[in-house]
Amino acid sequence: MSEVERVQRVVVLALDGVYPFELGIPSRIFGAAGGRYEVLTCTVDGRPVRSNADFSITVDHGPEVLATADTVVIASIAPNRVTAGVPDEVRAALALIRPDARIVSICTSAFVLAAVGLLDGRRATTHWHLTDLFRRMYPHVALDPDVLFVDEGRILTSAGAAAGIDVCLHLVREDHGSELANFVARCCVVPPFRDGGQAQYIEQPVPEQGAASTAATRAWALERLEEALTLADLAGHARMSLRTFARRFSDEVGLSPGRWLIQQRVARARRLLEASDLSVDQIAGQVGFATGASLRQHLHASIGVSPQAYRRTFQTAAAR
């Protein structure tokens, strides 16, 4: 890390009924980023909170540190603590957050953000099991239950439990590039980027006995992204009919084969933009997009910037 690079402060808010696992995710992920982040944990009044396990949690900070945060992460709470509103002390604590600070919810804490109006008119997600309840309580929020996290700029929401890892790695990637995010993921022994969304974890009928997986075909495709792979190519490798393969792929990954291929090509293009001096057209060819224009279109649809803008941001960030 450069001597002039500012350390970003992440403040984690623990509410009554907090899940200990999710509470520890920000410290574990951001703490592995080579000193680029400082992580503090607080409660709304500085006093201990009861976890959803058989112990209470004592913290060193009260709500005043929320006003100093670059990023605030609200850890998830037990579903039986979810209500249509929030206590006055929680609302007062959230009001301390600076207007330019990022706010991240993990799992059920999306209900907290919705209750104070921070998700009004925004796209968001939460645990798939609570989809119906969330929609009844907050119909004005565009809930997407099929994704692992939603990045709406200043406000980010993530799905259940381990999706907190995904959104924190995403922030490291956005702040400092894929190289550091991949390093953090290796340190924490987690995948740097999970395929698909939470649709793959939703309860559904057990596949028939002996049903083949599409995992081997996904691995095969990742080695051939530069090729013009079709659904027929994928189904043929898996030795399934087109219809069976498409259905099984969607059940396992939560995306159609076509959307998954685009996602993987964009991810590889981002890595090449960060780590190489190849032209946009050359990168497009290496990841399987027919033209540089196609790469520009898909990258912009995915993250909202052009290849040149992305390269300027993350090659510079990685070199600092």
UniProtKB/TrEMBL annotation:
Identify the Gene3D superfamilies for this entry.
3.40.50.880, Homeodomain-like
The HTH araC/xylS-type domain sits at 215-313
Could you state a single Gene Ontology molecular function term?
DNA-binding transcription factor activity
Per the record's keyword annotation, is Mitochondrion included, yes or no? no
Supply the name of the protein.
Answer: AraC family transcriptional regulator
Question: Organism, per UniProt?
Answer: Streptomyces resistomycificus
| Keywords, in A-Z order | Transcription, Transcription regulation
| Record flagged with keyword RNA-binding | no
Q: Which PANTHER family match?
A: ARAC-FAMILY TRANSCRIPTIONAL REGULATOR, HTH-TYPE TRANSCRIPTIONAL REGULATOR RV1931C
